[in-house]
Write a structure and sequence with these properties.
Bound molecules: coenzyme A
Largest sheet: 11 strands, mixed
Radius of gyration: 21 Å
Number of helices: 8
Shape: elongated
Structural class: alpha+beta
Strand content: 25-35%
CATH architecture of the largest domain: 3-Layer(aba) Sandwich
CATH class of the largest domain: Alpha Beta
Number of domains: 2
Order of helices and strands: HHEEEHEHEEHHEEEHEHE
Distance between the termini: 24 Å
Helix content: 25-40%
CATH superfamily of the largest domain: Gcn5-related N-acetyltransferase (GNAT)
């Protein structure tokens, strides 16, 4: 079912990628825009898989191209809380056309080919990312059983802080080794808060183990896989009542980047103890995290939130996070 695109097609694919990137940048100036040389190098040397492509008619240049891949997460990965272990996805997707109708038709044809690829690779699920401000893709994806999952949202360093009154006696500070059991318990509460509502969240034993690794790296002042962990706790009457598990990351300008090149703070996990939610602790901690963004001279921060987590969706939008990418999923059992 795969059509290999040969070197002579690479120029056409690069032109398609540039046209798409222009459209996406006009809709949202936060979108990464790799240069044509980067796209060409990626397609010819770095692409992790074959290209599949769709053309408007036989013999025409492609107006939809993708690089499908199957990602295998290690059995002890904390990503398994939200993604299947063998996940069919794409390393790159390019769709363009002279009109939105043409773009939509190209996406539909491309998804037919991707779907055939994924089905033949028998993953446990499929995920697909689409820019939140590009043309609406949810209806097309639903025809393939791929449904809304989550948002990848960013907050610019220059965005104004929240206006709120801090709860009295609330102290926010870096996480310390003596906080460990509270930190792990609160990290587990994040997944637990998703499970009743999200069709995709699953209990995962490795959440605590991976968080311990990040905390140990923070306490030893080390980087972990190229990023620098920074966790904060909010303390009320000497009790840890909230955590912000963050990483400082230098993002490059590779073809698969979700954000533009720069230094960012990634909020990996964030929770307020269940009995104290809705009292302003989350807002105070989010403000503190934004202070770290400024202190580190990051260009901004980013995070994921589930479309099914109503509390987090409201909370992060109020905290100034704007969706940049929308993620969709299908599980094999669904
Ligand atoms: C999401 C969460 C961190 C919010 O923290 P919080 O301390 O409860 O939030 P705050 O009391 O500081 O509220 C800040 C703002 O968000 C809004 N908000 C918070 N929770 C909300 C909810 N469940 N529904 C609607 N709005 C909500 C508040 O109304 C408030 O808005 P306002 O300033 O206009 O009044 C917390 O509910 C939580 O830990 N949830 C479970 C874990 C989780 O989902 N983490 C986020 C993962 S992405």
């Amino acid at each position: 079912m795969r059509d290999a695109v040969t070197l002579k097609d690479i120029d056409a694919v690069s032109a398609l990628a540039l046209a798409q990137n222009r459209r996406r940048f006009l809709a949202d100036s936060r979108m990464p825009c790799p240069k044509v040389e980067e796209i060409t190098r990626y397609l010819t040397q770095e692409s992790p898989g074959d290209l599949v492509w769709a053309a408007q008619r036989a013999g025409a240049e492609p107006n939809g191209v993708a690089v499908p891949v199957v990602i295998e997460y290690p059995a002890d990965s904390d990503a398994l809380a939200y993604w299947p272990q063998r996940n069919g996805t794409t390393a790159a997707v390019y769709v363009s056309g002279r009109s939105e109708a043409e773009c939509r038709a190209a996406l539909y044809c491309l998804l037919q080919k991707l779907d055939a690829y994924w089905r033949s690779a028998t993953p446990e699920g499929v995920s697909f990312m689409w820019p939140s401000q590009d043309f609406e893709a949810a209806g097309i994806l639903s025809k393939f059983g791929i449904q809304l999952d989550a948002f990848f949202a960013t907050r610019d360093a220059s965005s104004r802080p929240l206006t709120h009154t801090n709860p009295p006696n609330l102290k926010i500070r870096p996480a310390l080794p003596r906080d460990l059991s509270s930190l792990i318990r609160l990290a587990d509460e994040v997944v637990a808060a998703h499970i009743p509502h999200s069709p995709f969240a699953r209990p995962t034993v490795s959440i605590g183990d991976r968080y311990r690794e990040r905390l140990n790296a923070q306490w030893k002042n080390r980087t972990l896989n190229g990023s620098r962990p920074v966790s904060f706790v909010a303390e009320l009457d000497a009790q840890v009542v909230a955590i912000a598990d963050c990483l400082i990351i230098e993002e490059g300008s590779s073809v698969g980047s979700l954000v533009r090149h720069g230094k960012y703070l990634y909020v990996n996990s964030f929770a307020v103890a269940e009995c104290l939610r809705g009292t302003g602790i989350g807002a105070a901690l989010a403000d503190h995290v934004h202070g770290k963004v400024l202190e580190e001279r990051c260009c901004g921060s980013y995070l994921w939130f589930s479309a099914y987590n109503r509390g987090a969706s409201n909370f992060w939008r109020k905290a100034g996070y704007v969706p940049l990418w929308t993620s969709f999923q299908r599980r094999c059992e669904s």
